[in-house]
Amino acid sequence: MRKTISITLMSLIAALALGCKQEPAPKPAAHPAKTESGAKSEPGTYEKQKVVYHINYNDEKELKGAMRNVQNHINAVGKENLDLKVVMHGNGVDLLKQANDNPDMQSTVINLKKQGIGFQVCANTLKGKKINYKNDLFDVSESDIVPSGVAEIAALQQKGYSYVKP
Amino acid sequence: MKDNQFSQEFLNAFVDDQLTAEEKSRAYPQISQDESLNRAVCELRKTRDLVQLAYRDVPTPPSRGLPQPRTGLLGLSLAAGIALGIGISLGWFLHEPKMPTVTTVAHQPLRPAGVSVVAAPAGALPSAPREVATPVTAGATQAVAPMSQTAKVLMHLSQGETSRLDQALTEIEQLVQYYRTSGQTARVEVVINSEGLNLVRSDVSPFPERVQRLQREYDNLAFVACQNTIDRLKREKGITAQLLPGVSVIDSGVVQLMRRQHQGWSYIQV
C-alpha cells in the first residue's frame, strides 16, 4: 500500500512539474505580458521591447512631442533593448517633409535614426498625395516604404510589437 | 501492524465504509484515540482518494477477475499512469489562466437598446473581458489557432470633426482595399465611441452613403457603436441616436477594444 502511495504521489508530482513546464502556444501579439516581466526585472530596467509608433498628423508641436516621446522611450529602455519603428501615413508623412525644411526636425530625425529607430512611410499616401519621396521627404529609401501604413501597423502588432500613438 | 488489534483488511474496510454499523462504532473510538492507528487510517484514506481521483473517468478495466497479484500490479501501474495524465493536464490548466482568453464574441448588441446603462467606470474594465467572452460556435476554435492567416484589425474612432471622419473613412477604405487586392483575408472592425458616433448617426452623419457603400462592398468590415455613448447622449442631451442600417451596437466600446486585443486583434486609432 505504502508503495502505491509513494509511486502515485511521485508520478503526480513529476507530472505536475512536467505539465507546468510546457509553455503554451505563443501569446497573441497585441497583448504584451504585463504580469510577469515586471516582477523579474529590476526596478528601472526593462526587457527587450518591440514597439510601433503611429503618426498620422502633421501639427509641428505634436510631432515634436512625439519625437520627444520616442527619445524618452529609448532612454528608458536602452537602444540595445529596443526595436522601435515609426510608421507614418496620411498627414503624418509631413514629419519627413518638415525634416527636409526645418533643421531642428532634421537633426532630431538623424539622431533617432542613429539610435536604430526606423521611419516607415505609407505608399498609399505617397501615391494619393503625389509625393516624390526622393525630393520631398528627408532621407527615405525604397526599403523605408510600406504598401499600407495601417496594414503595416496591424501586421507589426501581430509580430509582437506594441502600439503607441503619441 | 505491531500491536494494532485491527487487521490491515479491517482498516481498509473501515476507510472504504464497508463495515457494519456495529463494527464501525466499535472501531471508531479506538482509531481516534490511537495515534498510530489514526495515521494508518489517514494514509489509507489518502490512497483511496488518490486512486479514486485517478479512476474517476476511467471505465472499469476488464481484468477485474484476474488473480490477485496481477491486479495489484496492474492497478499500481494504471494508477501511476493515470496520475501522470492527470498531473500533466492539471499542470497544463494551472498554467492556462495566464493566457488571454481567445474566444470569439459576436458583435451583436449585448443588451436590448432600451436598457439604460451607466457608463462603465475605468476600474470596472479589467474584469470585463472574462465576463463577456463566452465561447460561441465555430469561430471560437478558429481563434485559438496560434497565428491565423486572417488579419484582424480594430480601427478605433472617438473623434467627431468632419475632417477626422473623412480621413477615418479614407483610411478604413484604403485598408480593406489593400487587403482585398493583396489577397489577404482580413476582418476589420471599426469601434466607434464618444464623438466618433457622429459618423454612424443617421441624423448627423456627414457621410452616410460612404458608410453604407463600404458596408455593402466589404462584408469583412463591421461598424460597431458603443451603447454607453448612446445612453450618455440620451441622458445628457436627450438625444435618441438613430444609427445607420447595418451598424451594430456593443455594450462598451472601450471594453470591446480590450476584448478584441485579448483575442489577438491589432489596434489602430484613426
Keywords:
heterodimer, A: 166 residues, alpha/beta, Hypothetical Protein Ychn, Chain: A, five-stranded parallel β-sheet, globular, B: 270 residues, 10 helices
* CATH-defined fold name of the largest domain in chain B: Hypothetical Protein Ychn, Chain: A
Strand content of chain B: 5-15%
**Major sheet details of chain B:** 5 strands, parallel
What order do the strands of the largest sheet of chain A run in, or round the barrel if closed?
4-3-2-1-5
Terminal Cα span of chain A:
66 Å
Number of domains of chain B: 2
How many strand elements of chain A? 5
Kindly state the percentage of residues in helix of chain A: 40-55%
Q: In CATH's first tier, which class of chain A applies?
A: Alpha Beta
CATH class of the largest domain in chain B: Alpha Beta
The rounded Rg of chain B comes to 31 Å
Low-confidence stretches of chain B: 96-147
Oligomer: heterodimer
Q: Give the helix proportion of chain B (percent range).
A: 40-55%
> Architecture of the largest domain in chain B in CATH?
3-Layer(aba) Sandwich
Task: Report strand % of chain A.
Answer: 5-15%
Which two chains touch over the largest interface? A-B, 48 and 55 residues
> Which secondary-structure class do the elements of chain B indicate?
alpha/beta
Strand and helix order of chain A: HHEHEHHEHHEHE
Q: How would you sum up this structure, described in words?
A:
The complex is a heterodimer of chains A (166) and B (270). Helix content of chain A is 51%, strand content 14%. With 166 residues, chain A is an alpha/beta fold. Chain A has one domain: 3-Layer(aba) Sandwich (Hypothetical Protein Ychn, Chain: A), CATH 3.40.1260.10. In chain A, strands 4-3-2-1-5 form a 5-stranded parallel β-sheet, sandwiched between helices. In chain A, strand 1, helix 3 and strand 2 form a beta-alpha-beta unit. Chain A is globular and about 45 Å long. With 270 residues, chain B is an alpha/beta fold. Chain B folds into 2 domains: 89 residues, no CATH class; 148 residues, Hypothetical Protein Ychn, Chain: A (3-Layer(aba) Sandwich). Chain B has a 5-stranded parallel β-sheet with strand order 4-3-2-1-5, with helices on both faces. In chain B, helix 7 links the parallel strand 1 and strand 2. Chain B is elongated and about 95 Å long. About 19% of the residues of chain B have low confidence. Classes of the chains: A alpha/beta (166), B alpha/beta (270). Chains A and B meet through helix 1 and helix 8 of A and helix 3, helix 4, strand 1, helix 7 and strand 5 of B.
